[in-house]
TrEMBL record:
It is an enzyme of class 2 (transferase). The active site is at residue 79. It comes from Okeanomitos corallinicola TIOX110. Its cofactor is NH4(+); K(+). Substrate binds at residues 73, 77-80, 157. Its EC number is 2.7.1.33. This is Type III pantothenate kinase. It catalyses: (R)-pantothenate + ATP = (R)-4'-phosphopantothenate + ADP + H(+).
């Protein structure tokens, strides 16, 4: 999966996800392997990175028309489509998938595998970096610096930034989940992406009744890819 910030890899052996890892975006096209390469399934949301893989041997690009979801629109991100499709196939439909990556996205599908829709906003790291880069005196913070929930009413600038971003982000996630459950009370709720573990733990701490319902699975996109292989 070619994401906005990194390349995300998943190795399948006999149909089961064996391991995952991340690497940086490529500066040049990858060299062709000296020995026969295993099938490489690629999905991408970064066109400039996509072109670097066009001539790689035994590679196939996933497109939206391969994903068995109703009501897909042409500009839907392939990462969102794969995550909600994979999550629904593994855990059941209806499902709401929260992808906590560079962008934080909500994507929901009903019991008939029809896309209901979703929302997109800046992710946790992007919110931290935008304040640090677009202001004169605020420090540039990183997600890795946040281990525990900060005090809500902070007495230093660093904690104040963490409080403002994290608590409003959690409140927004809670609101989207609560509204979704009004529409689909028996729906599954899953969170995926690089910041999913951190935000998932915060949600359980702040809103136990919602946090306990959340399925944490960082591999939903790869599970969606596996379903594409099975169907095709």
């Amino acid at each position: 999966m070619i994401g906005n910030s990194r390349l995300h890899w998943g190795l399948f052996i006999n149909g089961e996800l064996n391991t995952t890892w991340d690497t940086e975006h490529l500066q040049n096209s990858p060299p062709h392997p000296r020995t026969p390469s295993p099938p490489l399934l690629i999905a991408s949301v970064v066109p400039t990175q996509t072109t670097k893989w066009q001539n790689y041997p035994n590679a196939e690009f996933i497109t939206l028309d391969q994903i068995s979801l109703g009501r897909i629109y042409s500009t839907l991100g392939i990462d969102r489509a794969l995550a909600v499709f994979g999550g629904g196939k593994v855990y059941g439909f209806p499902i709401l998938v929260i992808d906590a990556g560079t962008a934080l996205t909500f994507t929901g599908a009903d019991a008939n595998q029809n896309l209901i829709g979703g929302a997109i906003l800046p992710g946790l790291g992007l919110q931290f970096s935008s304040l640090g880069q677009k202001t004169g005196q605020l420090p540039l913070l990183k997600v890795g610096e946040v281990q525990e929930l900060p005090p809500r009413f902070a007495l230093d600038t660093k904690s104040a930034i963490q409080s403002g971003i994290i608590y409003t982000l959690l409140a927004g996630i809670k609101d989207f989940i609560a509204h979704w459950l009004l529409l689909f009370p028996d729906s599954k709720i899953a969170i995926t992406g690089g910041d999913s573990k951190l935000l998932g733990s915060y949600l359980k701490e702040q809103f136990p009744e919602i946090g306990e319902r959340i399925i944490l699975d960082k591999s939903l996109i790869f599970l969606g890819m596996r379903e594409i292989v099975r169907v095709n």
